[in-house]
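PT: before anyone asks, these are the final sequences, not the draft ones from last week. 347 residues across everything. Please model them as a single complex and drop the result in this thread when it's through.
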Amino acid sequence: MIPQSTAQVEPLSLIKHANPPEDWRTQLREAYRTPQQLLNALGFSEAQQATLIADDQGFSTLVPKAFAQKMQPQDPTDPLLLQVLPRYEEAVKHPEFNDDPLQEAQFNPVPGVVHKYQGRALLIAAGHCAINCRYCFRRHYPYSDQKRARNEWRQSLSYIKKHADIKEIILSGGDPLALTDVQLFELIAAIEAIPHVKRLRIHSRLPIVLPQRITLELCQRLAHSHLDCVMVVHANHANELGKDVAQACALLRQHQVQLLNQSVLLAHVNDTLTCLKELSERLFEFGIMPYYLHLPDHVAGTTHFFVNLKRGQSLVAKMQASMSGYLVPRLVREEPGKKSKTLYSQS
Ligand code: SF4
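LR: through. Structure below.
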């Protein structure tokens, strides 16, 4: 079931003028790029900052202002802040946590393509994101080896052309919507030209963290495609879903883009029944189907986010007992070396 959005949004005529095409790029340029900038904006004193700021372990800070504005000032436990602020715990080493927990390298037939699932192939369209999430399973990914510059997509596309079983292309990254329209539209046109590809799935956190990226031009381009377009957004907490996100989602829905959400179950961020229920309800209001709830991967530097299977199952069971089935996401985990996700609950 795909929900109809009931969130209060501006009429389409106003939305048209809300996000000028280049606005999001300016906002991305102006994003916070150090913990100090972010904590200053949130009103933390120098003394508080001294206790909070830790080494970034080689994964730099990047937080769009639109996302930071949804954080509570001077609250070090804010669930949005915890997702993006480098913390001392990142230095903790654990033998089961490593740089490539999903061992994606073995499903990497040519640079820029992950062909793991039957009928689908994932294309690394961009080597960067609009936000750096501290728990990210690709935080150590060698994007510089894998990233396809605009004129280098040919090899990835030629692999897809040779595999007639691939019906769906998943644009991932990094974040594919971090590409400019010129780059993205060129890539979409090349995919459209492959006869056996029927669906385009875009995995992106931009509609949530930088909703100004959802311009009329982008939506019209997707609407004009003969491919069925699905956008899988990524929100972990109801506080991420403000009015600006509601507008972006409404615009996408008005252009026949189906919206699904995947979240990661993260300790101290969203690992309570109240948080998960609020998230699902807000997503549904915005016309987004709660789809996957991922158990965190064993990524080096992320032990403090870890939630175990038993707790995940208990939370989802409580959701199932207290809300409509279509509001309960599927609890899943990616297992290293496996060709499909392991499903721990079926909603
Ligand atoms: S937006 Fe997605 S790919 Fe980028 S850092 Fe966050 S979780 Fe990782």
